[in-house]
From TrEMBL:
<keyword id="KW-0346">Stress response</keyword>
<feature type="binding site">
    <location>
        <position position="184"/>
    </location>
    <ligand>
        <name>Zn(2+) 2</name>
    </ligand>
</feature>
<dbReference type="InterPro" id="IPR018253">
    <property type="entry name" value="DnaJ_domain_CS"/>
</dbReference>
<dbReference type="InterPro" id="IPR001305">
    <property type="entry name" value="HSP_DnaJ_Cys-rich_dom"/>
</dbReference>
<keyword id="KW-0963">Cytoplasm</keyword>
<keyword id="KW-0479">Metal-binding</keyword>
<dbReference type="GO" id="GO:0031072">
    <property type="term" value="F:heat shock protein binding"/>
</dbReference>
<comment type="function">
    <text>Participates actively in the response to hyperosmotic and heat shock by preventing the aggregation of stress-denatured proteins and by disaggregating proteins, also in an autonomous, DnaK-independent fashion. Unfolded proteins bind initially to DnaJ; upon interaction with the DnaJ-bound protein, DnaK hydrolyzes its bound ATP, resulting in the formation of a stable complex. GrpE releases ADP from DnaK; ATP binding to DnaK triggers the release of the substrate protein, thus completing the reaction cycle.</text>
</comment>
<dbReference type="InterPro" id="IPR001623">
    <property type="entry name" value="DnaJ_domain"/>
</dbReference>
<dbReference type="InterPro" id="IPR002939">
    <property type="entry name" value="DnaJ_C"/>
</dbReference>
<dbReference type="Pfam" id="PF00226">
    <property type="entry name" value="DnaJ"/>
</dbReference>
<feature type="repeat" description="CXXCXGXG motif">
    <location>
        <begin position="141"/>
        <end position="148"/>
    </location>
</feature>
<feature type="repeat" description="CXXCXGXG motif">
    <location>
        <begin position="184"/>
        <end position="191"/>
    </location>
</feature>
<keyword id="KW-0677">Repeat</keyword>
<comment type="subunit">
    <text>Homodimer.</text>
</comment>
<dbReference type="Pfam" id="PF01556">
    <property type="entry name" value="DnaJ_C"/>
</dbReference>
<feature type="zinc finger region" description="CR-type">
    <location>
        <begin position="128"/>
        <end position="210"/>
    </location>
</feature>
């Protein structure tokens, strides 16, 4: 597969200045760096941009490329252009995302964050609660105080990279001297070597422990809320601060109440007589039972509001409301006397009974059939 034109790769013209070339490359590096972009083709696009930049940012290489293109005149017409080594992604990442400074492998590093999912009852979310949780996490080894070395000893500076964590590989090419940086093979980029390892943590400086943490769940917390507990994450490295713990709240459903924000909803049944004649009924709330007056003639699916009977507001004062939906229940399994009374009620109201409606259905049927 033939290589794309380097100017096309960076999206600049042949008359572009070195500043324009640099800006174009920095933009592509941020977009396609493998530590940032996890797409399948991100790494290949990053390498392509890096290769184009290495050539166009060097006046000698750029002049050579403008004259011969991808063909290396020192290797004959069949040879391809010899780009730089792309093994050192870490250096490029530090250059563009770390202010252009090389990362110190011996510098303190912050520990990782942890996430814990806590499931609580519906009313516990409404009123809040205090609880303890138990989480496994890494902590600084008490035996070596995090150094990883056996007590009485200490890590030594790597003699290969002299503490930098990187090795420099120099290559002499037709276009000049190229210096590539790779992770030090002797210390694996740590910049130090532990000859006598701690018997407790085996040189890692960290140990796994079970940690008990007391939580104060605030009243009014909702499903999906996230609580941050500072400093209760994984231990830091080389004296770095620990990470944080994020507790994700999951709230169980309730058999009677439903919640929307700070408001509570519930549904209560009414008999035909209660809806028609009116009544005063007892409604359960989150804290107590209250009386609710049902006006005569109330229709099914009517809502009533109980002000201030909802959930305490998490950020602010007061509480939400409780909304009560009434549903008129049609009577079933009536005896003969009850049915006769309903027929009489329908007759006095000028309503059609079931028997009268039969004739109406017949007339509708005839109308549809065209009889």
């Amino acid at each position: 597969m033939s290589k794309r034109d380097y100017y096309e790769v960076l999206g600049v013209g042949k008359d572009a200045s070195q500043e324009d070339i640099k800006k174009a490359y920095r933009k592509l590096a941020r977009q396609y760096h493998p530590d940032v972009n996890k797409a399948d083709d991100a790494e290949s696009k990053f390498k392509e941009a890096k290769e184009a930049y290495d050539v166009l940012s060097d006046d000698q290489k750029k002049a050579q490329y403008d004259r011969f293109g991808h063909v290396d005149p020192n290797q004959g017409m069949g040879g391809g252009f010899n780009g730089a080594d792309f093994g050192g992604f870490g250096d490029i990442f530090d250059m563009f995302f770390g202010g252009g400074q090389r990362r110190n492998p011996n510098a303190p590093q912050r520990g990782g964050d942890l996430q814990y999912t806590l499931t609580i009852e519906f009313k516990e979310a409404v009123f809040g609660k205090k609880t303890d949780i138990h989480i496994p996490r890494t902590e600084t080894c008490d035996t070596c105080q995090g150094s990883g070395a056996k007590p009485g000893t200490k890590p030594e500076t790597c003699g290969v990279c002299h503490g930098s964590g990187q090795q420099e590989v120099v290559q002499n090419t037709a276009f000049g001297r190229i210096v590539n940086r790779r992770v030090c093979s002797a210390c694996q980029g740590q910049g130090r070597i532990i000859k006598d390892k701690c018997g407790t943590c085996h040189g890692s400086g960290k140990v796994k422990k079970q940690r008990t943490i007391s939580l104060n769940i605030p009243a009014g917390v909702d499903d999906g809320a996230q609580l941050r507990v500072t400093g209760e994450g994984e231990a830091g490295t080389r004296g770095g601060p620990p990470g944080d713990l994020y507790v994700v709240i999951r709230v169980k459903s309730h058999e009677f109440f439903e919640r929307e924000g700070d408001d509570i909803y519930c549904e209560v049944p009414l008999t035909f007589a209660q809806a028609a004649l009116g009544d005063e009924i007892e409604i359960p709330t989150l804290t107590e039972k209250v009386k609710l007056k049902i006006p005569a003639g109330t229709q099914t699916d009517t809502y009533f509001r109980l002000k201030g009977k909802g959930v305490p507001r998490l950020r602010g004062y007061g509480q939400g409301d409780q909304h009560v939906k009434v549903v008129v229940v049609t009577p079933t399994n009536m005896n003969d006397e009850q049915r006769e009374l309903l027929r009489e009620f329908a007759r006095l109201s000028g309503e059609h009974t079931h028997e009268q409606n039969q004739s109406i259905f017949e007339r509708m049927k005839k109308a549809f059939l065209g009889d």
